[in-house]
Amino acid sequence: MEKPFNIIVLATGNGTNLGAIIDAKNEGHLQSVEILGVISNKSAVGALKKAEDYGCPAKFIGAANKTREEYDQELIDYICELEAQTNQKVDLICLIGYMRILSPKFIQQFPRKIINVHPALLPSYGGPGMLGDYIHEAVLANNDSETGMTIHYVDEGVDTGEIILQTRVPVELGDTVETLRHKVQSQEKLGYVKVLEDFSAAH
Known about the structure:
- By secondary structure, the chain is of the alpha/beta class.
- 40% of the residues lie in helices and 22% in strands.
- The protein contains six helices and seven strands.
- The chain has a seven-stranded mixed sheet, sandwiched between helices.
- It is globular.
- The mean pLDDT is 96.
């Protein structure tokens, strides 16, 4: 049996790319990838429901009245708890629509073990406040001929980590924020599965 490649998913919203990972596993791909747990800073979100339906631990950790460092320490403690419960080590932490900036403490705890997907061709449209539909609106406002998605390592900057994979899509006449979101999300799903395939194969 292949050595498992263990991931933790941090998500804030619907977990679209988590769904793609689960679908890939259910279809017989990513067989060595194990989802040790899904953690969200929002309760009752689609990502937690997807995790519950799949049968892996789904944990809401609220952020109210906590500093970023205090919150991230709770994340670290829970991840360590999952490792202890499963007798497994986390190989990769996957940010999937995670709407929090991680503290340096968290990043230093898991060096080069955290990746994120961003709905633009970084370094364009990166940095604080550049999220989701704001990016697609900016791409249309600037009459860009292409957009896309980037999967990158997370470092102590915002969207500044080393790029792992980029996929480009054309911006066509008649495109709207909604059509761009759909095009980019389609590439995000494929890209996340490909990156996990490559990482787990090299594990």
